C-alpha cells in the first residue's frame, strides 16, 4: 500500500511547524531568564539540543 504524497508531505510540514514552534518557545523562555535545564526538561528536549538551538540562533541573527 502506498500513501498519497500530498498526505505525507502535509504530515512532514506539520511536524516541522510544531518543532519550530517548540524551538521558538524555548528560545523565548531562555531570553526571559529561565534556566536552560528547566526549559529543556519542560519542552521535552535534551540540554544538548537546546544548546544547539541557541548556537544556531546566535549565528543566524
From TrEMBL:
Query: Which superkingdom is the protein from?
Result: Bacteria
List all Basic residues biased stretches: 12-22
Stretches with biased composition (Basic and acidic residues): 25-38
InterPro entries, per the entry? WH-like_DNA-bd_sf (IPR036388)
Matching Pfam families: HTH_23 (PF13384)
What segment(s) does the record annotate as region Disordered? 1-43
Name of the protein in its database record: Helix-turn-helix domain-containing protein
Source species, please?
A: Pseudonocardia alni subsp. carboxydivorans
